[in-house]
Amino acid sequence: MQIFIALFISIAKMTDKLIKHLFTSLIMLLLASVSFASPYSDSLLYQLNNAIKQSAVYDSKKLEQIAQLQQSITEPANSDPGKQYQLHLKLYDEYKYYKYDSAFTYTKKLRRYAEYKQDPSLVADARIKQVFILLSGGLFKETFDSLNVLSVEGVSNEVKAEYYSLKARCYYDLADFDDDGFYTSSYYTKANECMDSALSLYPQNTFEFLYFSGLRDLKKGQTGNALLRLQSLVASRKLSYHEIALATSMMGGIFSIQKNMEQARNFLIQASIADIKSSTKETSALLSVASIIFKEGNIKDAALYIEKANADAAFYKARLRKVQVGAILPLIKEHMINTIETQKQKLITYLILLAVLVLLLAGIAIIVRNQVKKLKVARLHLLEANLKQHAVNQELEKANALKEKYNEQMQQINRQLSEANKIKEEYLGYYFSIDTEFMARMEKLVNTIDKKLVDRKWDEIKLMLKTVDFRKEKEELLKNFDKTFLKLFPDFVDQFNTLFNPEDRFILKKDQLLNTELRIFALIRMGITDNEKIAEILNYSINTIYSYKTKMRNKAIIPKDDFDKKITEITTLNYQHQDKKNN
């Protein structure tokens, strides 16, 4: 029977391990299959995903602003071209990062009103803004064709600065797009020359000056200087969402160049969030985040970001961004398909294993069922034996409990006796010392008075008797009592304070050992509980002692009847150390 039971238990354990292994594997597979829906461990990614969910809300606010501006525009035949230019300029600003077609339409209207106004600066400004939209849409040929025929002679410095910075950006973008060893360097040279011209015209400490200075440093390979400029820009002023996106996007690019991918990732995510909140559709930050996240293996988020970037590029009609999206989107989709196929194969394998396990469990169940009756008999015998053993154990436990209780009582008695002996020794020594000192002083006083009696110096005798201060002597006696008591019970005050709320606890003055209330209960701890005796020692009335004791019991956080017991449980120095050691 014992061999059979052991064999059965062994089979059961093996089966249990196999079940646990199978279900662990299945759970891991399920977790892998739904890993795309797992909670975000990265707070910035969570904020970005939440911003994407709310992007329709931000776009709706953008459209509301545009609708309000459109309602304010009227175009009568005699309308002031300058005023109409400013109204249409606001609409252009709303559309220039949001939608290419609409922005381009408003640049044409800006050119028309500028030409009506016959203002060279407005005409140049309108054409520069049209070039900006062409570049944002990825129309490089049209961009350069327009720039080549654009003249900024006789216009304001503000328009010139915008012209040169735009021209620099055109060459920078063209250099990055070509990315070869022949043309790129010449494009960078031209871009830097244009940017230098723009920076000479922008007022220093403006956003444009600091941002374009950082861009120039970046393109020149001076990433440290560029990063410092951008960090000071972000830290020194309150920026709009679009300005935050521009600065943090460039900072993310700098950290990417420095191979600090963690910082690059964080700043690019911040830029992406700012782009979404400002309804900026012509952007590259989210595309860069998708690329980094994809390399980290976070396929789900990477797919979400690349789809959002692709949708924004298509909405804006940003041709260059669509090309950039097209370079990474197939890779992400291919990886997702491969992952799904791999998980599918694993799932099939685990299902086959599960089927085999079910058959195995069915066979074992049949064997187990045939042995249940035999096991019941063995179980009854074991139950009887356990009951007998349990009864014996209960008796032993009772005996041990009585023994422990007796030992505790003996230890308590021994402790009280030892503590009483310690107190007796300390206070016998204390009072012998006080008595000896007092007798010596009295002997000296008697001898001095006796000598002055012989010499008949009555005035000096009176003066000596007046110098005897019994109150001071009493205070000195109490102070010596305090010292001796606190030598035995150094933590008395702290332990006594634990019996009260914080606002009712005693805070002694500097150089004060005990006050009246503490002395009363110190005497009680010494075993002197009679109010009359305590009053005699402290030179108070019995009613005063009773009043102090009643007041303390009423303030205590423990029942009044247990207060004196808690006082007597305060231990001496030796037993405090012993209790800590035992603990």
What does it look like?
The chain has 583 residues and is mostly helical. Among the domains are: 49-281, Tetratricopeptide repeat domain (Serine Threonine Protein Phosphatase 5, Tetratricopeptide repeat, Alpha Horseshoe); 469-582, no CATH class. 81% of the residues lie in helices and 0% in strands. It has 24 helices and no strands. It has helices at 2-33, 43-53, 55-71, 81-95, 100-117, 120-136, 140-148, 157-178, 183-201, 207-219, 223-236, 241-257, 261-277, 285-296, 299-316, 319-454, 458-467, 470-488, 492-497, 516-525, 531-538, 542-555, 563-568, 573-582.
SSE order in H/E notation?
HHHHHHHHHHHHHHHHHHHHHHHH
State the fourth-level CATH superfamily of the domain at 49-281. Tetratricopeptide repeat domain
**Number of strand elements:** 0
Look at the structure and give the CATH class of the domain at 49-281.
Mainly Alpha
